[in-house]
Amino acid sequence: MSSNATLVLFLASSTLQPYEAVEPHMGTLFRIKLYAASEQQAKRAFQAAFSRIAQLDETLSDYRAESELSRVTTVATPVHVSDNLFAVLSKGEWLAEQTDGAFDVTLGPLTHLWRQTRRERRLPSPELLKNALERSGFRKMHLDAAIHSVRFDAPGMQLDVGGIAKGYAADEALAVLTKLGIRSALVAASGDLAFSDAPPGEKGWKIGIDALEHAIPLANAAVSTSGSSEQNFMANGVRYSHIIDPKTGLGLTTNITTSVIAPHGIDADGLATALNVLGPERGLAFIDTLPGVAAIIATGEKVVESASFHRFSR
């Protein structure tokens, strides 16, 4: 997910001291900022949190042929999956149903096709696009909550949870830190950020969003920014985004950047992607039906906010 969100950190004097560490995971850099009583406590916390992220990367990566995510689609019958994978697929299924497929974790055939397209700098053939579309579609994936299983209607399907996995990993890393006694922490992965309690003496972690002129304080929440400004390519005079419209199978051609604030990273991450596909009018109308969620969308022409975002824009 591309990021247009910037982080502004204001440190306060306290017996707790700020610490920061960065590691590469999930194809990006995960940055953790936290307040701890000692360097030793901070090091233990970093090690545990990054280990959790690495574990999830091994489970959820569509770049790894041996990952659980990649292996489940090779089985024709229902297959039991881990709690981590089931949690992500369940949230993906819910988002797909709520957005009429604007968010879809079964777009693996299309995302793999478009990765090749970006490398070759040319559009996929109609035949390849049709084939990938036939092997995609969230209604072809069936989850069974009773036994934590998943099955697929079409052969050759592939999963891609890249639009939701980093947010989930940020949530899980925060949970690990909290269990270790770290109450004030931030986990950032590209455009996906999640926070626990505010830094000592502050109302929240100060987060800057390009569409706003001021930073906003956030605590016990998450924010994700997604748009077409970074990962894109030109073909026949048209700029195509890495974000795919599930209905057409094509990369988005609109100039749009969306930032979503939600209680959890997994929600903010997936919703930010979905809103790019839905567009400002449909997307913001949907956001205003979700408790505790707010969004701001910038296009080449205007900046629009959900009704719930007004408390941040003042």
Instruction: Please give the order of strands in the largest beta sheet.
Output: 2-3-7-8-11-14-15-16
Question: Main sheet, how many strands, which sense, barrel?
Answer: 8 strands, antiparallel
Helix content: 25-40%
Number of strands: 16
**If you consult CATH, what is the topology of the domain at 78-152?**
T-fold
CATH uppermost class of the domain at 78-152: Mainly Alpha
Helices, strands, pairings?
Layout lengths: L4 E3 L9 E9 L2 E9 L2 H22 L7 H5 L6 E2 L2 H16 L9 H13 L5 H9 L6 E4 L4 E4 L12 H15 L5 E5 L2 E4 L9 E5 L6 E3 L2 E7 L4 E4 L2 E4 L14 E7 L2 H14 L1 H8 L6 E6 L3 E3 L4 H4 L1
Antiparallel strand pairs: 1-9, 2-3, 3-7, 4-6, 5-6, 7-8, 8-11, 9-10, 11-14, 12-13, 14-15, 15-16
Helix pairs in contact: 1-6, 3-7, 4-5, 6-7, 7-8
Structure in words:
With 314 residues, the chain is an alpha+beta fold. It has a domain of 75 residues: T-fold, CATH 1.10.3980. The chain has 9 helices and 16 strands. The strands form 4 sheets. Strands 2-3-7-8-11-14-15-16 form an 8-stranded antiparallel beta sheet. The protein has a 3-stranded antiparallel beta sheet with strand order 1-9-10, with no helix packed on it. A hairpin with a 2-residue loop joins strand 2 and strand 3. The N terminus is likely disordered.
Notable characteristics:
T-fold; alpha+beta; 8-stranded antiparallel β-sheet; 314 residues; single chain
Task: Explain briefly what this protein structure is.
By secondary structure, this protein is α+β, with helices and mostly antiparallel strands. Helix content is 34%, strand content 25%.
